[in-house]
Amino acid sequence: MNKYQEQIKKFCEERNWGQFHNPKDLLLGIIEEIGEFRNIIKWEQDPEIIKKVVLENKEEAKDCIGDIFWFLSLLANSCDIDINEAIEMTIKDNEKRFPIDKTNSKHTNIYLGGHDGKYKK
Amino acid sequence: MNKYQEQIKKFCEERNWGQFHNPKDLLLGIIEEIGEFRNIIKWEQDPEIIKKVVLENKEEAKDCIGDIFWFLSLLANSCDIDINEAIEMTIKDNEKRFPIDKTNSKHTNIYLGGHDGKYKK
Amino acid sequence: MNKYQEQIKKFCEERNWGQFHNPKDLLLGIIEEIGEFRNIIKWEQDPEIIKKVVLENKEEAKDCIGDIFWFLSLLANSCDIDINEAIEMTIKDNEKRFPIDKTNSKHTNIYLGGHDGKYKK
Amino acid sequence: MNKYQEQIKKFCEERNWGQFHNPKDLLLGIIEEIGEFRNIIKWEQDPEIIKKVVLENKEEAKDCIGDIFWFLSLLANSCDIDINEAIEMTIKDNEKRFPIDKTNSKHTNIYLGGHDGKYKK
N or C, which end of chain A is more exposed by having fewer CB within 10 Å? Predict the structure, then answer.
């Protein structure tokens, strides 16, 4: 099992928090962090400035990313899923879904002519 | 650096996908997965049945969890953040924020009398 | 056109804000409000207490609901969509999608045996 | 009360759906629609092309916008909130929060020097 997932599991068991970890609450927890991250970059359209403002507020960005992983681990725990297995499955799937020759330097938005082995428009 | 973050980084470098990885797109990618997970459990109010339906659809749940980590890694990459450092920071912060004696068997919703060292109502 | 959509349109035209209203930013704006609403009800599992805490914090809930409509209007404006037409389309679609005889007192989660004329499991 | 909110209320009463309308489910319903909208525009960075692809897929965009309003109305119903009152409050608040002379042609992201009467960095 993922080392961090295990630590987070232990943290919550020590507090008897399992009773609160309805998947709906955990999904909404991730949402809240996404909203906080959005605040750093909102309305800016220039990719270079977006990159710059995130780097200037790296601690806040790091905080959101750590918190999203936290809720994701709890979600995995609530479903008896090993987060490492889930990640390995996604990586393997994406290798098939996005072959290099069809996706090199191209996005995968099928509405805009991209290739995605999973969906067709 | 987190082993999976590194693999995902390499995967995207091989496809020159950095140009598409605006944090806004990555945050919205996580959102889409949350929407898919929601579909499995929506409208059901009984925690036992929620748990049961997730276990019955474990592959789909696993898929969402892996994909959320995928986008989270890309987000971390786009900000030059080591996801392991972010997680360790969150765990350390939560130890201070939620001391066992104040949060044992209690949720942390301050609107409902819970304890949260970060926020007061 | 929806009266409020029109007012919000004028508000933004007076400030030349169209340049910032990328749909990605507007979608993420809605996300942020959802995260704020979540804070009022998080971790609580009893539907009666959830209802009670929202009523006790009605101004905050109202604020989130108004703000979500605000971003939704801007999203509609950015796509030249009349929000009233969109709503009428949804209502009409849902009448076909969820006939009373098949959905009366039943949820529409197909993973749990519900009826949804749009999706099959 | 908003005419559509009332129609949607009646629609759900005819099906006895109140029992399923936990605010958590309704918030996650909006999330799912945002994920669907994201699919139309994902990875594209050019604002003109984003605008174009939304117009080319206007029915899908309209569908998402109508569905978001649908869930928003149900959320308001579940909290005994009149959606029109909520919108009017937001418009009034934003007039104070974003005075024209301080926000004309400027975004409101305080991390990037914008003006927001509600938050300071």
Answer: C
Q: Residue D121: its pLDDT value, please?
A: 67
Contact D31 B31 (CB under 8 A): yes
Both structure tokens of C24: 């990605």
Rounded Cα gap, residues C108 and C117, in angstroms: 9
Q: How far is CA C62 from CA C87, D71, D73, D83, in A?
A: 20, 14, 12, 8
CB within 8 Å: C84 and D4: yes
pLDDT in tens, chain D (121 residues): 899 999 999 999 999 999 999 999 999 999 999 999 999 999 999 999 999 999 999 999 999 999 999 999 999 999 999 999 999 999 999 999 999 999 999 999 999 999 999 887 6
Percent of chain C with pLDDT over 70: 99
DSSP-derived secondary structure letter, A19: G
% of chain A residues with pLDDT over 90: 95
How far is residue B70's CA from residue B83's CA, in Å, rounded to a whole number? Answer: 11
Which ipTM did the prediction report? 0.97
Q: Do A38 and C31 touch (CB under 8 A)?
A: yes
The answer for residues whose C-beta is within 8 angstroms of residue B67's C-beta and 6 or more apart is A90, B29, B33
**Residue whose token pair is 């232990």:** A10
Looking at the complex, report in whole angstroms how far the Cα of residue D104 sits from the nearest Cα belonging to chain C: 4
Is the distance from CB of C91 to CB of D3 less than 8 angstroms?
no
Say if the Cβ atoms of A90 and B66 lie within 8 Å. yes
Residue in A31, A43, A108 closest to D109 by CB = A43
The residues in B 25-64 lying below 8 A from D, measured between CB atoms, are: 25, 28-29, 31-36, 38-39, 42-43, 45
Q: Which amino acid is at C26?
A: L
C-alpha distances in angstroms, A65 versus B25, C37, D49?
Answer: 15, 21, 30
Contact of B31 with C99, CB cutoff 8 Å: no
Q: Kindly report the pTM of this predicted structure.
A: 0.97
